[in-house]
Amino acid sequence: MSKLVKFTAALLLSVTFANAESTQADAKALVDRGVEFCKKVGVAACVEEFNKPESQFVKDDLYIWANDFDGIITAHPKKPLKGKNMYRYKDKAGTQLFKDFIDKVKADGSGWVDYVWDHPTRGEQTPKTSYVIGIGENQLIGAGVYK
Predict the structure, then answer these.
(1) Sequence-ordered strand ranges (E) for the chain
(2) pLDDT tens across 11-46, in order?
(3) Three-state SS for 13?
(4) Which residues of 28-44 are buried (b: 16+ CB within 10 A; e: fewer)?
(5) Which residue in 97, 101, 47, 55 sits closest to 75, CA to CA?
(6) What are the φ and ψ backbone dihedral angles of 27, each rounded to 5 degrees?
(7) How many CB atoms are closer than 10 A to CB 130?
(8) Cα-flanking dihedrals φ and ψ of residue 101, to 5°?
(9) How many of the other CB atoms lie within 10 Å of CB of 139?
(10) Cβ atoms 105, 92 nearer than 8 A
(11) SS3 call for 91
């Protein structure tokens, strides 16, 4: 292979992997799109869509999940968490992230919450931040990005 071909291939690979993980702007835009979808189809129908692994709200490492204000997961397309109460769950740093999601939505309507979560390719808990917002009377949705 010529040096130019090798250089071009290496450059393309580095650009691909540099952009592999989503940004906070991507997460917020996905959640905002999810909110608009929920307004059109209703909370129950949108939560059903968020549960699908092939949902329009799943893109690589970015996806929307939902939980109610009791901490029960109502949608998670990547892990079998639907129906589980995660209110008391703590990450390795001791953060009760689902409680924090609920508290953020109740206090501010929406916002960012920092925590650690299992990274899908690194196989370890990694710093993450999620944008959360309330939908309906007792539900929130969110999407997060690894830092």
Answers:
(1) 58-59, 62-63, 65-68, 73-75, 110-118, 125-135, 139-146
(2) 333 333 344 578 999 999 999 999 999 999 999 999
(3) helix
(4) bebbeebbebbeeeebe
(5) 47
(6) -65, -45
(7) 24
(8) -60, -50
(9) 20
(10) no
(11) coil
- Give strand pairing partners of 113: 130
Mean pLDDT of the chain: 88
How many Cβ atoms sit within 10 Å of the Cβ of residue 107?
A: 8
Say what the pTM is.
0.84
- Residue 34: CB partners within 8 Å, gap ≥ 6? 46, 50, 57, 64, 135, 141, 143
The pLDDT of residue 21 is 74
In angstroms, the CA 43 to CA 100 distance is 22
CA torsion sign for 53, 56, 62, 63 is negative
Both tokens of 25, joined, read 């702007």
CB 46 within 8 A of CB 63: no
3-class state of residue 143 by DSSP: strand
CA 6/CA 45 separation, integer angstroms: 49
Residue stretches of the chain with pLDDT short of 50: 4-19
The first and second tokens of residue 146, run together, are 């690894």
